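Write out this protein's structure.
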Amino acid sequence: MKKWLVRLLILAACVYLGIIALFLANRHDLIYPFRAFPAQPVDLPGVKPVYLPATDAAPELEIWVKAPRGDKPVIVYFMGYAGNLALNITRLKEFVLNGYGLAAMTYRGGGGRPGNPTEQGLKSDARRMLAARRDLPGFDLPNDRLVFYGTSLGSGLATAMAAEVEGEAALILETPFTRLCDAAEAAYPLLPACLAMWDEHYASVDIIATIDAPLLILHGTADVTVPHRLGQALFDAAQEPKRFISYPGGRHNDLRLFGAGQDAIAFLEGL
């Protein structure tokens, strides 16, 4: 009886280790399930793609850009972990039709862009985009005309850029996490995600207290991809001024049905 129990425990341990190995081998595909085919800024009046040339260290970078109307700010937008910018047209259209400027980069490895997506690579691309502002039409504005907006995975990029830029107008985070591995552990509770994801951190909770710009967080209570409690914990770690809007029954990708778009615009209008 004891031999069978030992064999069963050994078998269970082997299966568990095999699952961990499979997670390690495929973790980048799980983090970055981008659509490979290109997207176009259709139904976005005035938005045009511009391209920063490739360098020895980075591939060519595509950015959708539009100048703001009057003295409104530019929304520096970072999309979520899936698809391409075409899946974000609804959000982007809200900004454009309300007169806000736009700067949204296509992630390397998705949207027909070359390169291998990693946290280090995407943050490097975001810095390149911000550094090239003077060469991008309508984006040559002071920091206090920039609003960083990040959705899901993009919340990690938006928070990182807001922490590096001084005097930005605001930071808006939709369905954000504290750390990427915290969201992964919620999705895969039996896996040591924070050990396995040793090179993909997006640790927003460690830096958000350094940001003194107005903060808005939007999160649904029924979000199973990034649990509501992670957005709340990130909010708790931030300094004032800040606002957290919960959407009862809201999930990860449907907050527009609950009025999140109008709430984001109202927040921007109140800056």
